[in-house]
Fold these 3 entries.
Entry 1:
Amino acid sequence: MAVLAIIHVGLAAAWVGGMAYSLFVVQPKLKKYFGDDRDGREALTAVIASGNRWKVIGLIAAIAVSGVFLLLLNHNHWQLHMVKGILLLVATGIFWYVSWRHWPQRVFATAAELPGLQRRLIRLATAMLGLAGTAFTLGVVAVHL
């Protein structure tokens, strides 16, 4: 059970950490580096994001599956874990929207549409980070109750 818990926490920390790094380090640096060159910024953002969709889906699935196994092994504080699961589902829904709706819109966006789409991505990424971070925090709380 300890190994499974370490895997679960490690995967969740990787997801939260990756989102936080992207949101608070990569995105601001891209904006600063490219300045008014929105096309250059968009091109590099697309290169960075390319090919990550299925990796993140695998990560989310592994977090969910390991969480279910942990809950089957230990039912204590199942209500907190149920909330964690709901938060994961909502974050996954946002990820789906970003991957299959938002990115295609950005690829075909006009210059006038792009700033609004960039702002929307920051809001969506912030929401995903908040949801995943809250789920992570609830997991820590559940262990210490």
Entry 2:
Amino acid sequence: MKKLLSKYKKQFLESLENLRGYSDLTIKSYDETLQECALYVQLIEENNTILIDLMPYRIQIAKLNAKTISRKLSSIRTFVSYLNDNKIKCTLKADDTIKVAKTLPKPIPHKHILQALEKSTKEECLIITILYTLGLRISELSSLKLEDISNEWIRVLGKGNKQRDIPLLHETKKSIDEYLSEKQPNKFLFEKSGERLSENSLRYIITKVFKRVALKVTPHQLRHSFATSLLNNNARISDVSELLGHSSMATTQIYTKLGSALKQQNYNKAHPLCMSEDDV
């Protein structure tokens, strides 16, 4: 039975790449979860149906944070759904969901991004500028091709192989042209030894640059900063959702909550009734 599941696991992971367009990092996460899960779950076959008892595995991962547990269980459910779609009857036991607290993204203040840019090389500067002015995911930046860059637009292949066009700022295009005249890549905007620069390499570059200004920053925080800046300057949420490549505006709503939280902080600092006696 385990051999059968192992066989379908390989096909499942291939489908995540070929049909859903998931990044290498996401597929690796699915693979690691399914390998880990296989060590502990109990498999029972009844009435031509495979019952996967998750309880032994749930006990093993119980000490992890709720978000991680939720992600692992979601990966397993997606795999089981794939099995059923491929005529392998399969059900889960001890599959109860857990509540995960919603956390607001943490954008990087504009002044800190400028400080980091001042201490970066031409390539580092362009990587950060593109993430900050276009709101790309790191996987989208890694796979950005030269043929998808025009004078005014960049065409991005996002999650689920969905394409979207994002307007290109004049200064960003100017930085790209200067970079291309110096580096002359073949196919992708960022390359090393003729191959596209990996997501991990790009992450390392971003971490290294912001470390110079004593900050710990992830690529996704730059994407958050892009969205938050637009919404705080009265951009329509539908437009921001489209630029980010969100399949639903509900995903974009979290940024409006962040904007409200920042406004509340500014209000608390500015209004006389919110100040302490020392501040007045």
Entry 3:
Amino acid sequence: MATTRRIQACLNGARAKGFHPRLPVTPDQLAADAAACVASGAVALHIHPRDAEGAETLDPAAVGAAVTAVRRAAPGVHVSVSTGDWIEQDDARQLSCVRRWAGLPLLARPDEASVNLAERTAPAVIEALQEGGIGVEAGLASISDANRLLALGLLPGCRRVLVEMDDVEPAAAEAVAAGILALIGEGGPEHQLHGFGRSAWPMARRAAALGLMLRIGLEDMAELPDGSPAQDNAALVAAAMAL
């Protein structure tokens, strides 16, 4: 039986403004890109909100503005944001910002947020998200990340597990991803598999073959499967739909 492909479009990530001519940064740019990606087949969206200077931020006002704009452009589609510790570069501020997201109006509040299990603050960030009613996307980039998630007993409370491979050779990415997937097992939260740079399209193909959610967008790559430059995020999503 055929299954519907589930693609999360990752619109900008930590990319600098000059990375790609169509990299969305402002709320209006994110909104326009979100609508185009959903029209191309994306069922979920992941964004990194920016401040007035274009720098990543976890500040509730900036997060709320970006999420509101995206949600209005793509109603009914779940919007995820990052909680990465590099964004604020201060553990206390990171946690303070995440906790204050719970006070945002529903229209401005993220549906989910990704948490990197390699980060020291991951358990506290996960607790803050859960207390605020925001779904947790647990980011696992290594076997040790997966073991930590399991040891902490946090897997059942997650909404999604992100098996995310770095910019490494595809064979190495495949080996680590297979090990993580074997550890976390089937069932439970939704599993997403994605890569970055060299591993991006190989992991997308692997996710499609396994029937897992895949993630595609300028956060992870700027080229189409044939190596040619992608016009924008929507073109990347369309290419993923055609895998």
